[in-house]
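quick one before i forget lol
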Amino acid sequence: MKNILIIFFILISLPAAVYSQDNLKPQDQEEINEKPNKDNTTIPEGLELKKPISEKDLKKKKEKGYLIPLPLYSLDVDKGFGYGLRLVYYNNGTRDDPYFAYTPYRYRIYGQFFQTTNGWQYHQLLYEAPYFMGSLFRIKSAFTFDKNIAATYFGTGENTLNTLTDPYGNTHIKYTSFKEKIRELQEETNTAYSKYVQYIKEKPSMKVSLERDIYKAFTRGFLGLDIANISVTDYTGKKVLAFKADGTEEKNAIMGTTKLKEDCDANIIKGCNGGWNNVLKFGFAYDTRDFEPDPNNGLFIDTVFEISNKLIGSEHNYFQYTFSPRFYYSPIENIADLVFTARYVFAYISKSAPFYALDNYSFTSGSKSGMGGYSTLRGYTQNRFIGNIHSLLNFEIRWTMFDIDILNQNFAFILVPFFDTGRIFDNISNFKFSGYKYGEGIGLRTAWNQSMVSFFDVGFSQEGVSYSMNFEHIF
């Protein structure tokens, strides 16, 4: 823990220290006087080649600080209906601020309380500041409490690509029929398998990251540290809810052996007892997007390396690499606000990693849950496919149908048809362009004052239909 605290304080202190050193030199005070733009304001040094926000969006961008109280909502087949509140404070600066046309905001702070009817909790405090105090650094820190009593585990690797199989030996194409079958009670033994692919996962965590523009604001270096303690509780032998043949509830059914327990007993996976999962991250990003929260044009290439080691307090030594290019193109921006977007994700995780690290993609902007669910492969349940090698491709068409101003607030409504495809591989030598799972669907996004994007997506796949409501574009 001593090493962890040392690294943490270094990461927090570094941006302020660098900023102080920059301001000790008089010549550095000229950094915002390098080059005037067409409005006769000045462009900060290092941003002269960066794309500003489009003229259309710049006119709508709100000045100074404002508070957004957001009612939170979500819908998930396993987690149930989610509800809560997020309070977000944005500060955009003023129009005469040289950074106004080049940043989504000068800084944002938010806190949220969120839980679902099936027992998932996700509470968070976050602070983020691009170009912190006028420097080329971005800092971000977050404290999170995540508890999911319906975390899913379907196994690992290429075996998860097979048709769903229940504990009775039956196969199911539809996830709904699989769920119906495993919740049935074996009345002669009072045994059920309703939690067969579920376990309880509790994860309090702290994250801090530092980014810095390296070359003309197109390239950024990234350094981060995640500290998390994972608690894993298996349902095997516990009392669970099941249903008798006549449809009546049995609240004291005894849970049979879960899929997680089967794989733990067979030594197929690591991490069955949970523990500390501390990760040191570093990487690079190439970014030519015109507006980070809702881009119209540009390219974003993200590559992140992760190291988890006992030297920084982790239970396991493992390595992870994530590579993700994203593309944004507006072909007729003078006629319609129509954006074609695509994202590819390749992730490699060493075989020494615990199972709870196999469902994670790391980007410089933050982490996303593994393949399956609203942020990766829509139409499938959360973390439906996890393993050591991931290949994922997402396509979206984002059409802003119209926007309106209400009480000095701007709301834009975006229609988004999408297509997702991906699969898992056990080894690099197995990599091929066949056997991919896919889902398609349509979504409605709402952009509140441009920076706050919420969505409602409906995804369809071979295994069923998914509904998801959350915040921010998935990429």
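fyi Residues 410 and 449 are 5 Å apart (CA to CA).
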